[in-house]
Specification:
Length: about 375
């Protein structure tokens, strides 16, 4: 019998369920610190969370890009304790689904897009501890001809349109794999929770979430470029603005902002509030955030609460005294250190990836 698709409890005041996935409610982040608590962290599962045992777990490295390991027949293996014995690193980074914000293509722009109808809650930030993928690759005997590195998960094969696409796997260019990618075994000071990849997951800072393969079981290291449905059919941009074969496979995340508020939150007229939110970018740190409480007619700068850092979000706040009863729209627009600013309209693509436009957050002012 199939178990639950997600192991951890998903109280409805913290999560919105979308099939096998669970989205963090932004209002549940109010009062939390910089890091998303593990119990509040969104879950994106193609199938279901496998409950694995770290002591039986092995990470197998194989492929034409390893010295002396021409095929799957001569793999190099690491156990959980082998990884834990390597030099450890700790980093604060976000994981964000490429489709985060997708529902706003429809709600704000009237575009029909396929995929999980996320609001803005398919992102979380954690303090991850693990080892550098570069250290593991070098220990496995990286050959000078290696070009691509493809981690694969131990969760069930993904079936789409009646056809199995195999296990979740997605190639990384060697340069990124050797740069800042981690094999993480801890999340916010605890062993990885089952839903987030126990015992070990890949963590690819600033890139779309699909690159951060959970429950990693093997890594193909190849002397030829690798393809998988997750970098050919999915996680490219398709549509009128893009070539027929789609854009290049998605890498860096885009720029977004969210209020730590429920959609439709109510505020008493004439009472001073402090609105809180967070902004983030895959292209660098957040440099400034401007907020409008009158539907975009006027803007003022928010106070930033975190020193801007790449790979994670910046918390901010702005005071507001609602002046008149009735519906209102709150907007936040971020600018990053790469010079990007959130546009009013996002360029659409059929699968609704990389939504970056300013979101109009509906609230009601009451007497
Ligand atoms: N890894 C495996 N093995 N299986 C999956 O379904 N989902 C990916 C990625 N890694 C996935 C996976 C996607 S699309 C995202 S957005 C992130 O995991 C989500 O990570 P989280 O569930 O820890 O938040
Ligand atoms: Mo995702």
């Amino acid at each position: 019998a199939a178990g639950p698709t997600i192991v951890k409890p998903l109280p409805s005041e913290w999560f919105v369920r979308h099939g096998t996935n669970a989205e963090t409610r932004w209002e549940a982040l109010r009062g939390t610190g910089h890091h998303t608590p593990n119990e509040l962290f969104f879950v994106r599962n193609h199938t279901a969370t496998p409950v694995l045992d770290a002591h039986d777990w092995r990470l197998r490295l194989w492929g034409s890009g390893l010295r002396g390991a021409p095929g799957e027949d001569r793999p190099v293996e690491f156990g959980y304790d082998d990884l834990r014995a390597l030099p450890a690193v700790t980093r604060t980074v976000s994981v964000e689904c490429a489709g985060n914000g997708r529902s706003h293509y429809t709600s704000q722009q009237g575009e029909a897009v396929s995929g999980t109808a996320w609001g803005l809650g398919a992102i979380g930030v954690a303090r991850w501890r693990g080892v550098r993928l570069a250290d593991v690759l070098r220990r496995a005997g990286l050959s000078s001809s290696a070009v691509d590195v493809q981690p694969r998960g131990l969760d069930a094969e993904y079936v789409s349109g009646g056809e199995s696409l195999g296990r979740v796997r997605r190639p990384l260019p060697l340069a990124k794999a050797l740069d800042d990618v981690l094999l993480a075994y801890e999340m916010n000071g605890e062993p990885l929770p089952y839903d987030h990849g126990y015992p070990v997951r890949v963590l690819v800072p600033s890139w779309v979430g699909i690159a951060s393969v959970k429950w990693v079981g093997d890594i193909e290291v190849s002397a030829q470029p690798l393809l998988s449905p997750w970098n050919t059919a999915f996680y490219r941009l398709f549509g009128p603005a893009h070539p027929p074969e789609g854009s290049a496979p998605l890498t860096r995340q885009t720029l977004k902002s969210a209020f730590e508020l429920a959609s439709g939150a109510t505020f008493p007229v004439g009472e001073r509030q402090v609105l809180h939110g967070r902004s983030w970018s895959g292209a660098g740190a957040v440099a400034r955030v401007d907020v409008s409480t009158d539907g975009g007619a006027s803007w003022r700068p928010a106070r930033l609460h975190d020193a801007g850092r790449a790979g994670t979000w910046t918390r901010w706040s702005v005071p507001w005294t609602p002046g008149a009863p009735g519906p209102a729209q709150l907007l936040a627009r971020a600018t990053d250190t790469a010079g990007r600013r959130q546009p009013d309209v996002a360029v659409p693509n059929t699968q609704g990836y990389l939504f970056d436009a300013v979101v109009r957050h509906p609230v009601t002012v009451v007497r």
